[in-house]
Design goal:
One of its GO terms (cellular component) is cytosol. Keywords: RNA-binding, Transcription, Transcription antitermination, Transcription regulation. The chain is built from 8 helices and no strands. The chain is mainly alpha-helical. Helix 6 packs antiparallel against helix 7.
Length: 149
C-alpha cells in the first residue's frame, strides 16, 4: 500500500466520523483489520491490500488528528470558503480538506504541496470538477496565508 492509498483511506475514515456514533478509536479498531479490508475490497479496490504496521500508524495519526482538531480545521475551511456556508460543502470534500490541512499543520515531514496535490487527486475520484477546483483553491489559500506567517 502506498502513502497515497493510506491517505485516501484516512479521508474515508474521516468522512465516516462525520456520521457515526463510534469513537475514533472504535472506528479505527474496527476498520483497520485484514478482515475489514477483505470485506471492503469487494466494493472498492482501494482496500485490496491491508495496511502494515507503519501504514496503520500513519492512518491512525491522521484520522485521530483530524478528529481532535476538527473544529480548528473546519474553521479554516469556513474562513477560506469565500461565499460558501460550511454546511453547503459536501462531507467528502470537507473530509479530504481536513486531512490535507492536518498534514500541513501538524506533519512537517510532508511537504505542503504534496498534501494539497494528493487532496486534489483524491477529490477527483469523488467530487465534481467544480468541487475539485474549490478544494484546490481553499487549500492553496490556506497554505499561503496560514503557513507562511
Amino acid at each position: 500500500m502506498t502513502r497515497n492509498t493510506a491517505r485516501e483511506i484516512a479521508a474515508h475514515l474521516s468522512y465516516e466520523l462525520s456520521f457515526t456514533d463510534k469513537t475514533v478509536e472504535e472506528l479505527l479498531q474496527e476498520r483497520l483489520t485484514s478482515e475489514a479490508f477483505a470485506e471492503l475490497a469487494e466494493e472498492d479496490s482501494l482496500y485490496t491490500e491491508a495496511p502494515n504496521a507503519k501504514q496503520v500508524a500513519y492512518i491512525t495519526r491522521l484520522v485521530t488528528g483530524v478528529n481532535e482538531h476538527a473544529a480548528e480545521l473546519d474553521g479554516y475551511i469556513a474562513k477560506y470558503a469565500k461565499n460558501w456556508k460550511f454546511s453547503r460543502i459536501p462531507l467528502v470534500a470537507s473530509a479530504i480538506m481536513r486531512v490535507a490541512m492536518y498534514e500541513i499543520l501538524y506533519m512537517q515531514d510532508i511537504p505542503n504541496g504534496a498534501a494539497i496535490n494528493e487532496a486534489v487527486e483524491i477529490a477527483k475520484k469523488y467530487e465534481t470538477p467544480e468541487t475539485v477546483k474549490f478544494i484546490n483553491g481553499i487549500l492553496g489559500s490556506f497554505a499561503r496565508e496560514e503557513i507562511s506567517q
